[in-house]
Amino acid sequence: MSTYQPPSAGEIRVAAITGAGSGIGRAAAQALLARGWRLALLGRRAEALEETAAPAPERCLLLPTDVADETQVRDAFARLRERFGRLDLLFNNAGMGAPACDIDQLSVAQWRRVVDVNLTGSFLCAREAFALMKAQRPRGGRIVNNGSISAHAPRPGSVAYTSTKHAITGLTKTLALDGRAHDIACGQLDIGNAETPLTAGFAAGMPQANGQIAAEPVMDVEHAALALVYMAELPLSANVPFMTVMATKMPYIGRG
Fold it and tell me: What is the pLDDT of residue 255?
């Protein structure tokens, strides 16, 4: 017997999505909108958030936010609470990388910016979501962190990005453990080579562990969005701690 429970007719569910202005965040947001969710969309560019919300703007709250800024994150979640009254899902999706290079060529400023967005940003948003989910009635909710394939295996020259994504796994495990007492589930979605503007150059070739440059296959970003929807709509009595969805032939299994 399946534990999958799609929303019942008339049921209102609320999600917050970071990095919602493009790529995986936009695809996930629009997949949830298609299933009737209300959304708080967080991203740095208001115009990009408007484009994401276009299929159902009346069900969206646009929150231009730098997730690395504690005050902006706190204010965004206060506005979310004022508008919707509760939160059922946080998708911690916002992320960035640094130019590919050896560690001695990476500036401390570049390192800190990647850590601030990918790790501290996820912490700040999870902290606000956790507090809201603990206090609301009925209590509980779900947090899904975007881990990336780099949470398991690095690409060459990616010390900052890969370090943060490994740290996201620790954040996921800790939230999954600490959330039990409050009916808060936490899982991690590791995505490989979803077709977005960030992967536009993959067909031209990417550095490989053996030093070669090789083209890499990509998959439709919709597959990543549907994976998120599946995790989001499970009952809180079930959880997917870790899910990997990737282009079948990308160089991950056996990388290196």
Answer: 56
Does domain 14-246 fall under CATH 3.40.50.720? My reply is yes
Measure the CA–CA gap between 73 and 63, rounded to whole angstroms: 9
pLDDT per position as a tens digit, 205-237:
887 877 788 877 888 999 999 999 999 999 999
Angle at 189 between CA 199 and CA 124, to 5 degrees: 95
* Burial profile 24-39: b = 16 or more Cβ within 10 angstroms, e = fewer: bbbbbbbbbbeeebbb
Does this model's pTM top 0.85? My answer is yes
Q: Cα separation of 83 and 239, whole Å?
A: 27
Bridge pairing between strands 184-192 and 242-246: parallel
- Known catalytic residues are 161
Nearest Cα residue to 91 out of 250, 210, 229: 229
Dihedral sign computed on CA atoms, order 198, 199, 203, 204: positive
Spell out a b/e string for 112-124, using b for 16 or more CB atoms within 10 Å of the CB, else e.
Answer: eebbbbbbbbbbb
Q: Where are the domains of the chain?
A: 14-246
**Measured distance CA(38)–CA(52) in Å, rounded:** 13
Lowest mean pLDDT among 21-30, 168-177, 210-219, 222-231: 210-219
Q: How many other CB atoms sit within 10 Å of the CB of residue 137?
A: 7
